Amino acid sequence: MAKDKTTRWKEERRKRAWALYQTGWKQKDIAEALGVTQGAVSQWIKRGRAGGEAGLAEQPKSGAPVRLSAADRQKLPGMLERGAESFGFRGELWTCARVGKLIEREFGVRYHPAHVSRILKDLGWTPQKPIRRAKQRKEAEIQHWKDVRWPELKKRRSKKDERSSL
Length: 166
Description:
Layout: H1 5-22, H2 27-34, H3 38-51, H4 70-81, H5 96-107, H6 113-122, H7 139-154, H8 159-162
Helix pairs in contact: 1-2, 1-3, 2-3, 5-6
């Protein structure tokens, strides 16, 4: 796997620090020249002493290995565009839980909904949250209250009402 530009320049900076140290530069001067902290230079020198220039190479990333392959990740947006109902969900809303179920069903990989949110963000998608409303909700009565009752409640109090009781 080819290293990206970010990894390469950081590795070259560590190697440059090691080379300067070997020519007799002091840690604080190396840090100042490279625009890093003395602590960073100290760690790099420690790695250089332990493994030479090879010890300054990029280390493998820590953490759990990626479970959803790059190919599967590329398929996911197309599946989401087909809509939630085409996968047996009621309504066209894609929630993190639904996307997680889709990933598990289609790719055999289980993710926590919070991690599904990160995957969606990486793909440029935003999870949607359904609006939960009571089934017995009466829209006409609510609108009447907003149009008639609420303005009455908002009316300014008279000057008499504004006086303090203190």
